[in-house]
Amino acid sequence: METLALHSRKNTMQAIKHTRRFVSIFITLLAISCMAAAQQRAVTPFDLLPRVQDTLPDDSITIAISSNPFDIVKIRPKGYVDNAAPGFRIEKSKKPRLTAREKEDVYKRFIFIVMLVMVVSLTLAVTFFRLLLVKIWEAFRSDVLLHQLHREQGAGMTLAYSILYLLFLMNAGVFAFLGCRYFNIEIAGTNIASLGILTLGISGYFLVKHLMLRFIGFIFPIRKEVSAYEFTIVIFNIVIGLFLAAGILFLAYSPASTTKYWLYGIAGTVGGIYLFRHLRGMFIAAPFIGNHKFHFLLYLCSVEIAPVVLIAKLLISQGGN
Predict the structure, then answer these.
(1) Contact (CB, 8 A) for 263 and 179
(2) pLDDT means over runs of 10, the chain (321 residues)
(3) What is the number of other CB atoms lying within 10 angstroms of the CB of residue 241?
(4) Whether 239 contacts 273, CB under 8 Å
């Protein structure tokens, strides 16, 4: 009897033990399923969807939802079709337009930097090439001294002449930039782009002119005279560059009431220097004008007059005047 009772008690303990194990397994599975369901419906700390839904209208957007709580929620306009490759899409924000006061401040800072560079360049040029500048001024005043300086200089342009000629191109570009601003002619969207286009345009014009003169000297037996005229252009342009360096400072910082007079005064003086240069050029071409009047007029109209007229017409049409 005692053995039977002991065996019965042992079976009862095993049954209770198995029951507890079954109940614990059942409770564990039930908890896991509840957590999975709650994860699909509950808001995690990394889910920004409720905040976005509260701030946007219901019918204007479609939201792409992912089961991963670490995915970025994509908000797209209704009817949006994504044909691009998968990956991050970066929207470029439009830059706010500057007011008239802000544009004026940007222009003042830009012109101050330009004037500073111009003054420093002019100071260095005068310091290093003072004796050469004196000779250039004397050659500008006298035709005999110009030919003498041409013989001393020889064929081709030296480094000193190239630097002084580059200074002229820079000053001419700045003067053209200030003139376009006065007449409200917009060359480009920014100040530096407008100045660059004008400077490169003037440089391209004179480069083509020098190449054409050398081509004419190569084709016709007037290479010596063409070389003298080309050197005359270099001398006169260097003098104009020095004159512009002084005039631009007054033009840039003069009161609005006097800007017009400075602009027309500088342009008139530059025009007078160019007429003087053409007169000196006619002295060089005097032995050939009588026998080649047609060729001289053809060169004068096609190379000297036509480009200036076309550039002036282009600027006037650009400004709408």
Answers:
(1) yes
(2) 53 61 61 56 48 48 53 54 51 67 90 95 93 95 92 80 95 95 88 95 93 88 89 96 93 90 94 92 82 77 80 70 47
(3) 21
(4) yes
Task: For tokens 């079954």, name the residue.
Answer: 22
> Are the beta carbons of 260 and 169 closer than 8 angstroms?
no
Q: Give whole-number Cα distances, 192 to 199, 249, 311, in Å.
A: 10, 18, 20
Residue with tokens 């939802």: 65
pTM, 2 dp: 0.68
Q: What is the pLDDT of residue 11?
A: 58
CB 111 within 8 A of CB 195: no
Contacts of residue 212, Cβ cutoff 8 Å, sequence gap at least 6? 303
- Cα distance between residue 178 and residue 259, in whole Å: 10
Sign of torsion over alpha carbons 248, 280, 216, 225: negative
Contact call for residues 176 and 187 (beta carbons, < 8 A): no
Q: Going by DSSP bridges, is the β-strand pair 74-77/61-64 parallel, antiparallel, or unpaired?
A: antiparallel
Residue ranges of the alpha helices (H) in the chain?
A: 2-41, 49-55, 100-128, 130-141, 143-153, 159-182, 191-219, 223-253, 256-289, 293-299, 306-319
State whether the Cα torsion 12-17-18-22 is positive or negative: positive
Q: What integer pLDDT is reported at residue 43 of this predicted model?
A: 46
The β-bridge partners of 77 are 61
Give the count of beta carbons closer than 10 Å to the beta carbon of residue 304.
13
* Tokens 């800007």, located at residue: 259
**pLDDT at residue number 49:** 46
Residue 205 to residues 72, 235, 303, Cα–Cα distance (Å): 57, 17, 10
